[in-house]
Amino acid sequence: FPSHDNEWQLDLNPTFAGLLFSWFLGSASTTGPVDGTYTHIWQFRTTGDTVGKSFTVHEAQGTALGRVYAGVQLREITITSDTEGMAMVTTAGIAESQASNDVARIASLAYPAINSYTFANARVYLTPSGGSEAEVLSDSFEIVLNNGLDEARYKVGSAKTRQLQVNAGTTGSLKINCDAEKIFKDNADIYKNYSACIVTGK
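Above: the chain sequence. Below: its structure as C-alpha cells.
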C-alpha cells in the first residue's frame, strides 16, 4: 500500500509523553537531576532538516486483527486538557506504507505505576510583560505544535515517501478557556505580551 495519512487520539500518559516528543522533534538535550528532577529540552528543526525519528503503529478496533503502519512520522501534535478527565493528545502525520496483511492485535499494553489522573491535573501560569507570574484558573486548554514537515516527498517509480524534510516554518499556538477577568482586557488594551507555563502532576 502507498503512503497513508494518519491521525490518532490517545491519553497523554506521563511515561508516553517523552517518547511522543522524541518521535515528533527528535532527541532531547537532558540536564539534571536537580532536586530529583530532570529537564528535557527539545528544539524545533529548521528548513531542510529532518526529524530523524519514525515508528511503527499497530491499529486494531475491538477484537479485529490489526493493521500495520510503518515509517510513521508526525507533523503535528495537539494536547488538550479540561476539568473532566485525562489529558489527551491527537497526532497527525503520514506513514511510509501500510502492510497488506493484518496481524494479531497485542494482548495488553502496560505502563509503569504512575498516577495518570494526577498527571492530568494541569495548572496554567501566565506572566504579562513587566509583571509577575500568576496561576490562572482555567476550564480547558489546547496546545497545537506543527514541525513543518513536507509530506509530499515522493520519488519516481515508488509509492512510498522518503525521509521527510522540514519545508515550512514551525508553528505553535495555545488556547486557554478561563474566566473573563478585567486584568486580561486591561492588558490587551495596552498590548501586553504574555508568556505561558503549563505544569502537570501537581
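The longest helix spans residues 14-25.
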